[in-house]
Amino acid sequence: MYNFDEVIERRGTCSEKYDLAAKLGMPEDVIPFWVADMDFKSPPEVIDALAQRVQHGIFGYSNTLDDKYFNALSHWFTTRFDWQIRPEWLVNSPGVVFAICTAIRTLTKPGDSVLIQQPVYHPFERSVKLNDRHLVVNRLIYRDGRYHMNLDEFERQIAEEKVKLFILCNPHNPVGRIWTREELTAVGDICVRYGVYVISDEIHQDFVYPGYKHLVFASLKPEYADIAITCTAPSKTFNLPGLQASNIFIANEKIRRLFTEEMRKTGYSELNLMGIVACQAAYEHGAQWLDELIFYLSGNLALFRNFLKDELPVIRLVEPEGTYLVWLDFSAIGLSDREMEQFLVHNARIWLSPGTKFGLGGQGFQRFNIACPRSVLQQGLNRLKEALAQLQKGIFS
User: Fold this and answer.
1) Which residue did the predictor score with more confidence, 393 or 210?
2) Would 320 be classed as within a structural domain?
3) How are beta strands 141-143 and 31-32 bridged, if at all?
4) 135 and 273 assigned to the same domain
């Protein structure tokens, strides 16, 4: 029903994904597969709702005062994740990273230890350091082509470093893990035992491949809900990041009050009006669009997997369980991280996210966004194949 094969020109639209390349001196025809921003139009129901609101012609101060907004969220989380939310838990934020920074200041003091699991979404580290907290890295274990939590080290670091806050990436960006009930319960029980708060970034929760199920951390035990700030947004799911609307859920009344007070200190008070309209329309009408999108992305992933197997076995795919971001091991090629970055941009003319951005364990890896029309993905893979063939000739000639 929906045409995900349509190639849409995005250059010249204030698109960070596309228009930043020229400013960075990249080739004019470089194909961007880096930032987590899809090349698909948002659901038509969302576009129609925005157009209708534009036709109203008045864009005054806005707020999520209408029960319909919360009801749309509640229905989505109940049907998709069996998570019953309450209206009083909801705090609106312009974005998840904004909320993470706010939560860090709410739950910790300068100098306090905050733990993250690298390689992980790079704003986690930046948010900790910019707010003058002590960064503790619990490095994920890469074994047999799959990532695992180092639970023994996790508990040791929490105890020895006197960790006050853990930032959980669930599902995990960039390694693509959908954490199991056993894994989430293990870290949750440790955090409860040591009095550690949890920020759970669940922005990729809707992208789960067949055979896996996303579990909301705060839904697993009441004691987890009492220590958690759950960060969600429609932005990744429906390609709406430019509209700046996220939904943060905090069951603990004291934490919620302190979080809201900290957010007000920034001068922030109302959501973007268009973000409200788009979010409600997406959760009310976007289910079929999302289901078809995940089916399409599964096809893209199959293409990617088979191409590497048949044409580029030197590159190792870390099989994703969720997200539309593919984590690739380029280490067998033998280039340094800096050389690989330059090779991909200037020889293959594809722009990926270098693994070093994601911290410890990212060396030798690249992150590849497959949320694009299949023809574009095929073009990018062909360019990579051709460039590696030329590289091999240069090495062995």
Assistant:
1) 210
2) yes
3) unpaired
4) yes
